[in-house]
Amino acid sequence: MTTSFAPLTVAIGDLVAHPANVRSNAPETYDSENIAHLKASIAVLGLLQPLLVQQLDGKFAVLAGGRRHAALNELVADKAAKGFTAKTKIDCRLVPEDCDVTTALSLAENITQAPMNAIDEFEAFARMMEVDGQTPETIAKTFGTTVAAVKGRLRYGLIHPDIRAAARAKTITLDTMKAFAEHPSQEAQREVFEALTKDGGYLQAYTVRQALKSRGVQVSDDIGAFVRADYEARGGAVAADLLEEHSVLEDAALVETILLEKLGAAAEDARMRLGFAWADAMVRYDYATMADYGRVYPGPIEPDEAAQKRVDEISAELEKLQLEMEDEGLEDGAYNALYERVDALEEEARDLQEAYSAEDLARSGVIASWQGGQITLHVGLVRPEDTVKEEGARGSSPSPTGEEAPDAGEITYPASLAEDLKTERAMALRAAMALHPEATLDLTLFKLVSDVLASGMSVTQAIKVEARKEYRSHAKMDEIDETSLEQVAAAHDALDLSWLDDTRAPADQFAAFRALEAGEKAKLVAFATASTTQSCFARDRQRDNLMHAFEIEIMPDIRAHWTPNAALFNRFKKAWLLKILGEDLGLTQEAVTLASSTKKEIVAFCDKLFAEPFATLTDAQRAAVAAWCPPMMQTAGVACDEAEPAADTPEPDSEVAQAA
Hints:
Blueprint (H helix, E strand, L loop, with lengths): L5 E6 L3 E3 L18 H10 L5 E6 L2 E6 L1 H12 L11 E7 L6 H10 L6 H13 L5 H8 L3 H11 L3 H8 L5 H6 L6 H12 L7 H9 L3 E2 L3 H12 L4 E2 L8 E2 L2 H23 L3 E4 L5 H4 L3 E2 L3 E2 L4 H21 L6 H22 E2 L2 H6 L1 E7 L2 E9 L32 H20 L2 H17 L29 H11 L12 H9 L3 H13 L14 H10 L11 H4 L4 H11 L3 H7 L4 H13 L7 H9 L29 E2 L2
Parallel strand pairs: 2-4, 3-5, 9-13
Antiparallel strand pairs: 1-5, 3-4, 6-8, 7-8, 10-14, 11-12, 13-14, 14-15
Helix pairs in contact: 1-2, 4-6, 5-6, 9-10, 11-12, 14-15, 17-19, 17-21, 18-21, 24-25, 24-26
């Protein structure tokens, strides 16, 4: 066996691939994107390791070093690369022609080199910058990678030495070590490391990140970005990081001071603009504390002549926009733009027709807090000492907590919720049709022959006889009640699909279909027709008398196919839920009691109530719970004009009302 190979230099143009190279059957190994970093390294540092070659047919075949060979060829082809041509000679080692272990040599070249330790790699990058004077940009160029990737490695290589040593000793994990890079100050890293390990506890990446948060606020954090300019103007210390987004505003107290000042200014601006009596600010809205506060709401007013003229203009424009939004060919971007315009117009119209009373303004105020990365205004709050106790006073509450009574006015449905309720109703109708195959078969056949043989308009547009399955779009499909889905699945499982064999010709399929019993055909036609029904609310008797009557026949009660759940209640306003409990279900005492609860608690109560009506309910209450649904969803209920969904209004009783 040959143990040493003679050195020689070979022109790049005289090199070819060796058939015994173990990577020859994996050409993707040599794709440009897979050797980019190698190409960059050779361009800057040269070829650091000679190629192993063997002379074949007058050429030098690369037995080991195929990726370096591919990178050299790319450098030759790259006109921007200097110093590399087909005649450029590179260092090689020659394997004799009679060598009998060529495959073993190629394999050994690829598998015997141990991968580099991650910490060694991080520290090597750091030394290149600290000792060799390299910059992240020059390092990235050398290794054919991005500057961001280099900075990421550099950050880990610059973690406090004691922490890197702990990772080497495996007393902490590599992920835990990386967590310390969340703060660029080695002193802050060391202090947190010592504090967390002094009792010998097991260190986790999560606890490290949480501890470092008390040492400052990252500039990429929503609060950090919001206050940074003022913070730096006041001389606040900034711990700079190689990655700018990880730099830290170290004076957390100054950050909070500036944030409260900005929140206070926003609250005062709202107070002056809306006419409230007082303004306040808090970094985080304390729901427990605010439970003792009351709340007042704007009431309807008679707009003056100019305001009424504007309301009329808005109404006309909204009608036009609603028609445009019904265009099925509308692209998503255009639809969203129309939707935002509708919301803005509806809000403007509401402001022209609602206002707080002078009495309410004189005793209420506004609090600004930081929520969801922005200033949030909580308007119409009444301090406990200012809550009006007199019975019947406008804006007052009979509840001892000062919360609004269950009567919150007319329930209106936001446009987005209305669209989803249409979908849920259509799914329930589909289940009902599938469960009534004879009636649905009659409807389908009647629709088909009437449209073809009768003169005039189609008997109903609700069924698409083109045999296209209707797509059910829903914003929260994973959260809806699954009753109708389960019923449809069960109906599908009961179908005889033996005739629907893809290996058969259509004529053979048709013959097998005709041989089915009439009842089986009815099930198939009913299921298919049910899948074509369009999403909408209860049919208007005047506009579609046929489907209005048919839906009442097969789905007299939608609750047989659908049950309200938490996903629906979460999209209702708190005041609506209290109104439904108190007025629709007859649970007046429960509504008053829950008025002081959070919306989350009320949603949980409603979800449990509808899932299994409580044993303590009266017969009338139990019947109301079993029958309740949004009125426009119930087939035999009050018809709702589906062309006019209500506006997505700010939640009057919620803890949050977004700043204008």
